[in-house]
């Protein structure tokens, strides 16, 4: 990567494509990384004379990092200046299920997957009176939340049940949390690009009995209804979208929140072709996803010309003290549908302010 330098190596074809969208994968409570990414993109866009009015978040705003509430506040603040799309990730699904159902197993699953830091962050700003409870919880599990701790955690949860329930209710009643959760979407589609947190294949599409011609529209409408029902305590429909795939430790076919790059690689040739046919009916040329951690942006190629881009480089402060998680600038109007031309117009900008052209996106290993 090279440091941004005005008018450095960009050719006129790039400069003619002035309308861009900023795509930001899994933030995971890393507000510093998010702030720096947005600032670096603003600087880059100003220097290169391009516009970006849209920011598309690929989900997983919360957990693992320490500043989930600050991330949510930043996202809400960005809505004042940008067209902001917020997709739901598996970690928002874990948090929603835990807070709404108040079921111990759901709460444990959330905490076990990095939710404790999120709970502390939310409570600190929304209901700080529960600080003592959370401090006791942190001392009890100072060595980390492990499977072997589940029984002990259950006892602690039952002993403090009324306090936990009150805390969950106060968090859910918060205006910012309600706004954030209610605006989450399953997908976003524009100019041949379908954005989704994990991914999707024919097994999920056909299991829902969506019509071939309108599967994408029907899926988004169903999810919108499923989210409204879940916020009111009914997860019947939401469960279809929140089922861990086999590669994530579950026993079901991959659902959109949990789908990973290894799930794509496990599809046989027939499944790949049928999946690509569904994409083409909907006008999808490429999927752009987060969720699956890769060491650099990579692409999985279907048999014909559809591709999936994996964008979560996973190096935020949630994973390491050294972080460079950033965003990807994608032109809103492509000059060509050919992959190589598309890639030459796409740029990765990390939270340090470095950028690189994605003209040589690495193919996902088979």
Radius of gyration over all CA atoms, rounded? 21 Å
Strand content: 5-15%
Broad shape = globular
**What class, by secondary structure content?**
alpha/beta
CATH topology: Purple Acid Phosphatase, chain A, domain 2
| Corresponding CATH architecture | 4-Layer Sandwich
- In this structure, how is the largest beta sheet organized? 7 strands, mixed
Secondary-structure element order, N to C:
EHEHEHEHHHHHHEEHHHHEEEEHEEE
| Terminal-residue CA separation | 26 Å
Q: Which spans of ≥5 residues are poorly predicted at pLDDT below 50? A: 1-16
Helix content: 40-55%
Number of helices: 14
Brief description of this entry?
This protein is an alpha/beta fold. It contains 14 helices and 13 strands. The chain is globular, with a radius of gyration of 21 Å.
Characterization of this structure:
The chain is of the alpha/beta class. It has 14 helices and 13 strands. A hairpin with a 4-residue loop joins strand 11 (347-349) and strand 12. Residues 1-16 have low confidence and may be disordered.
SSE layout:
Elements: E1 2-3, H1 12-16, E2 19-24, H2 31-48, E3 51-57, H3 68-78, E4 83-86, H4 90-101, H5 104-126, H6 131-140, H7 150-159, H8 161-173, H9 175-182, E5 187-190, E6 193-196, H10 202-207, H11 215-231, H12 261-266, H13 269-282, E7 286-289, E8 298-301, E9 307-310, E10 327-331, H14 339-344, E11 347-349, E12 354-357, E13 362-363
Parallel strand pairs: 2-3, 3-4, 6-7, 7-9, 8-13
Antiparallel strand pairs: 1-12, 2-10, 5-6, 8-9, 10-11, 11-12
